[in-house]
Amino acid sequence: MSEKKQAGGLQGVVAGQSAISTVGVGGIGLNYRGYDINDLAYKCTFEEVTYLLLKGHLPTQQQLDELKTLIWSKRYIPCKLKQILETLPKESHPMDIMRTVTSILGILEPETKSGQEYDISIRLISIFGPALLYWYHYSNSGIKINENTGKDSIAENFLKLYHLKSEIDPLVIKTFDVSLILYAEHDFAASTFAARVTVSTLSDFYSGITTAIGTLRGPLHGGANEAAMQYLEPLRSIPQADQFLNSRYQSKQLIMGFGHRVYKKEDPRSPIIKDFSLQLSKTQNGDPTLLAVSQHIEKRMVEEKKIYPNLDFYSASAYRQCGVPTPMFTAIFVISRMTGWGGHIIEQRSNNKLMRPVSDYTGPAKKQFVPIEMRNKANL
Ligand code: COA
Question: Which pathway does it serve (predicted)?
């Protein structure tokens, strides 16, 4: 096999340098800016991780307070954006809403000078949830929500706006917050790499993010959490789970939420989200059957195929038990990964070089040009 063929899907190709996260590097697990993902998930909030990824270090209490104030002030949805959201059909996919919100904001609040990356990142992180849920409630029931829920975290604001409640179970908020931390950053994942390619042409910040959202949507990347929930949904017993797995094995179809390009054993994020999903399953609104089925599928996949769950697998049951509808799963990933994308765009711009690889040409050898009046099937 030639060296170029080995790089199918750019597997194993080092495409640049980054100081943001370690994904399977040198056996040190997943770190964001040097901090272990377990410490961040169990001891931090998503807002602290946002600061870490965008600014390069953890915030002091004062810096965190300033960030929270900034988030609260950047939650408002401009009237023009509300008017556009009101015209979008309820059948739209939430990922299309996220991409559209980014595009519209890029027009209403364009990037006009250098050094705006942090502010625009925070603007997008703050407005994504409210804008998505404004569209959701308006298109489904004509309700115009008030996006301002006071001094709430990103997680609490999303859950309150989705459920239209003023109180949310603290474990649900913590699970949602942890999921945002886990999804926040993952090195040169396809969407992040796509964003870096876009801004490497000196394009604007919003274009980088719309590129990233479009790339995240696919089921081989961010869309896997939705795809996992779709097959888990009807499985209400172990025999049903067995039947599902056996038929997938037979037809050699992928089991979404399993496998990873870099982690060939355990995805370090998976046990963390599984822990929270299990905790939720033991609460009043939990779904122990969903967890039993999920654990059974995991056991069989690991034992029989040596393929491990990635973050998306147990995120599906965690989000379901937070009461969030399946089509919103990948859109929630956008809110979270916005922090990593922002960090990578800042990093790319700090030492930019146009990304322009070459291909291994496999087309025809040089051909004689034939004028159109002389062309026939034999000489094309
Ligand atoms: N279900 C069933 N088989 C899987 C699998 C899955 N989820 N993931 C990998 N495999 C199999 C492949 O079919 C392949 O088998 P083969 O050697 O017999 O052809 C083998 O494992 C190696 O997989 P490969 O496709 O080379 O790995 P990759 O690095 O290209 O793919 C993913 C990584 C993520 C694209 C792949 O694991 C996948 O499609 N997973 C499902 C989607 C998903 O959960 N994505 C989220 C990623 S965080």
Answer: Carbohydrate metabolism; tricarboxylic acid cycle; isocitrate from oxaloacetate: step 1/2
